[in-house]
Write a structure and sequence with these properties.
By secondary structure, the protein is an alpha/beta fold. Helix content is about 30%, strand content about 25%. The structure holds ligand LLP.
Length: about 450
């Protein structure tokens, strides 16, 4: 197994992240524990910004915060010059609370509520990315009441078949996202926007899917989007000021994954875009990219303590850890694969094949199926890699398990960025109506 750049193994064979010993982190903070490497996150942000400054300066990187949304991450990405893509009222609230300027925020979602839209208008987000006629009507009324003219990007579906898990593809013809370019709906909707006095058409958005390893689907998306820009100009006289092409750049979960470096995707996108704009004689729009996973994915690991070890003779050996689908539902949802190591014997060769099970009351609660590890004992600290994206952000309190805390590490220092949840925190919002008590 190839080690991620956030990790190293010391001379005693102990795994470290951001200069912190993983066993020591597990002892200090308890397990399960999400650990995020600050240097990796900053390097990723800087890589995107540097490349765009060089190749397409009229560009913005909006961190897709659905991948990992906490106050500290908005603070880090803001310091690095990124904006944010938010997808719910509370992601928006968190971003604003962390000090992300509203005019660097893109508000997404295929069914934003009127309350969420009102918050976005009130706070003055840079753009609402509209995704239904219903939303367009509601937003126009809300902006009107606020005496505002709200910038909108229109989410379109360019119909690209990106080779990734079906649940994270977003531009199949039957996708719930976007207005179809192919059937003419996108054009109709955009041309109709001029009747909405409190909305201002600022541009287009598409996102073709996530965890994509090939360049071709991105190049194809650029082709289709610039074709569409040309058509909008010719038929409706509309100029697209901003072209937001979403995110989706793949990361390494296991050695089977062979993603390109994130900037290689961006490089290819920019080259294709520049060529298409020239060929089609379109004025260059502002380019917006929304990477999520590639900024935080490999920055994260999760530490667990191994509890029960159970062998089903001739069939399978389970090692059960103190986490599970409540803190990482990705195997249960997408059959995702992960690599892992035993934290104090990370240099030892594999000796057995085990399946890492979670502690939830459900057979599908698996974290890793059939992984080769040195022989595992109860009490070992297991480190699972590339858990920085879509783990904490997708966690739940299933079985009333606490969502683990998150610790940020750098140069041997560690600090909470999300504090532990106590049983009382989980129960605090429950209520027993008085009339239930009366029945006693
Ligand atoms: N922009 C939009 C509009 C998106 O919907 C997404 C991801 C992104 C940007 C960022 O994509 P990324 O760079 O992270 O691939 N829960 C799934 C992933 C769902 C992705 C949703 N949208 C998972 O765990 O794999």
């Amino acid at each position: 197994m190839k080690l991620r750049d956030t990790l190293d193994i010391d001379e005693k064979g102990r795994l470290r992240i951001g200069g912190c010993d993983c066993v020591a982190l597990a002892e200090q903070y308890g397990t399960p524990l999400y650990v995020m490497d600050e240097t990796h996150i900053r390097n990723m942000c800087r890589g995107y910004i540097r490349l765009l400054q060089e190749k397409y300066p009229n560009a913005t990187v909006a961190y897709a915060s659905k991948a990992f949304s906490t106050l500290a991450i908005y603070e880090i990405v803001r310091q690095e010059g990124l904006g944010a893509d938010v997808v719910s009222g509370c992601e928006l609230y968190t971003a604003l609370k962390a000090g992300m300027p509203a005019d660097k925020i893109y508000f997404h979602g295929n069914n934003k509520s009127p309350a969420e839209l009102a918050l976005a208008v009130r706070e003055g987000v840079h753009a609402v990315v509209v995704d239904s006629l219903y939303e367009i009507d509601v937003l126009n009324v809300i902006a009107g009441k606020a005496g505002a003219v709200q910038n909108v990007l229109v989410r379109v579906n360019p119909g690209i078949d990106a080779h990734t898990h079906r649940f994270i593809q977003t531009t199949r013809p039957d996708s719930k996202f976007g207005f179809s370019i192919a059937d003419g709906t996108a054009q109709e909707v955009i041309c109709g926007l001029s009747e909405k006095k409190n909305l201002r058409f600022a541009g287009l958005h598409c996102h073709i899917g996530s965890q994509i390893f090939e360049l071709k689907p991105f190049a194809l998306a650029v082709d289709k989007m610039t074709d569409f820009m040309e058509r909008l100009f010719v038929t409706c006289g509309l100029t697209v000021e901003e072209l937001n092409l979403g995110g989706g750049y793949g990361v390494t979960y296991t050695d089977e994954d062979k993603p390109l470096a994130p900037w290689q995707y961006v490089d290819a996108i920019v080259e294709q875009l520049t060529a298409c704009l020239q060929k089609k004689k379109i004025a260059p729009p502002k380019l917006v990219l929304e990477p999520g996973r590639s900024i935080v994915g490999e920055a994260g690991i999760t530490l667990y303590t191994v509890g029960a070890v159970k062998e089903i003779k001739g069939l399978k050996k389970y090692i059960a850890v103190d986490g599970g689908m409540f803190e990482n539902p990705r195997y249960a949802l997408y059959q995702s694969k992960y690599d892992a190591a035993i934290a104090d014997r990370a240099n030892q060769p594999p000796a057995e094949t085990v399946t890492v099970a979670g502690k939830c009351c459900e057979s599908g609660d698996i974290l890793i199926e059939d992984i080769r590890l040195p022989s595992v004992r109860s009490g070992d600290v297991l480190a699972v890699f590339t858990t920085g994206a879509y783990n904490y952000s997708m966690a739940s309190n299933y079985n009333r398990n606490a969502v683990p805390p998150v610790v940020l590490v750098q140069n041997g220092e560690s600090d909470y960025i999300v504090k532990p949840q106590s049983y009382e925190d989980i129960v605090a919002r429950d209520a027993i109506p008085a009339r239930l008590g009366e029945r006693k």
